[in-house]
């Protein structure tokens, strides 16, 4: 199993303790969404928790940088966690209410992929925001492009 690491950043290093999404997500919701991942994918509980955690770290980072038009993009594996979170619409609306000033963060996927480095730039931003980064879950998608780049969607 790969360990979670904070990525080294030359221009904007992560300082202080690394934050964990487990401090943000209620236990019952976490357990439910881990169970959904295990039901829908060939994941054991360890892998399901890794994927879900990175999905939350990505979404919370996207919300924290709303309006900056950064063209953030999750990897293919992290996107599985994102989909699990956003498909639980009541809980996702509550997340947006609490962490996105009550505004819904839309998901606008693109069909075409491009190799633009957006996935690893996003992983670096997640780390710079202090979230735990499981680098091996981000490295699977060098060809993943931002969803509707430059907007306040993901």
UniProtKB/TrEMBL annotation:
Highest rank taxon of the organism: Bacteria
Protein name stated in the entry: Uncharacterized protein
Organism per entry: Streptomyces olindensis
Lineage: Bacteria, Bacillati, Actinomycetota, Actinomycetes, Kitasatosporales
